[in-house]
Amino acid sequence: MKQALAKLFGPDGRTVILPIDHGTAIPVPGLERPAELISAIAPHIDGFVVNLGVARACQEALSQTAICLRTDVYKPDLPEGSVKLFGADDAQEVGAAAMMHMLYPGHADESRILAECSETIREGIFAGIPTIVEALPVGLGLPSAYTVDAVRFAVRQAAELGAAVVKTAFPSGATAADFRSVIQGCFVPVIVLGGAALGDDRALLSMVRNALDAGAVGIAIGRNVWQHPEPARISRQLHALVHRDLSVDDALAQG
Description:
Elements: H1 2-6, E1 15-19, H2 34-41, E2 47-50, H3 52-57, H4 59-62, E3 66-70, E4 72-74, E5 82-84, H5 88-93, E6 98-103, H6 110-127, E7 131-135, H7 148-161, E8 165-168, H8 176-184, E9 190-193, H9 201-214, E10 218-220, H10 223-226, H11 231-243, H12 248-252
Parallel strand pairs: 1-2, 1-10, 2-3, 3-6, 6-7, 7-8, 8-9, 9-10
Antiparallel strand pairs: 4-5
Helix pairs in contact: 7-8, 8-9, 9-11
């Protein structure tokens, strides 16, 4: 498990992950040619979150970086929230270093989601493949529900289930101190997601800077990179912010 995680995390213990697994959930302008995107920004990315189809179709492009296989399908308007479709056997087949699975505390179908998430974690433990649990209160894309208390509980629940790493949202309207309380309540590493494209580089980098200052060990940011007018530039700036611990201004200067 430690060797697998080392493929995603640099010597500094931090990571820049790019999710490009949105094709089962939402329209994906910006992901029409995933292999080209992967090749263009791979030097600035530690790992890509992909669905099985992309993992198989883009093997050559992904060979220079770590693969994190998405094991469930999620959609904002899916009544079930998310549905498990793949597992550790599939992750091994594509050479994945990790798996990623959703967890929605408070969702109407929470009991099934808990069971499927736990099953994925258990499969990974026996196969030596860590599971990154994406823990979001209630469901996907509901910022009003992402209060500090709700995010803190979601993160802790994921850790208690056996997640190797927890991916979560920066709570709505929170400060770095607020997010620090989330991370201090968790005993495994926490990474922060980016959410919908902001269209504001400084706001994105400031959110990441606050998360790192609070104790996050990295990011898993998708749309704010692959829907950016210059994906290579923003990924380079994010990489510098995370791995070189730059200020927002210094990261923005990495043009």
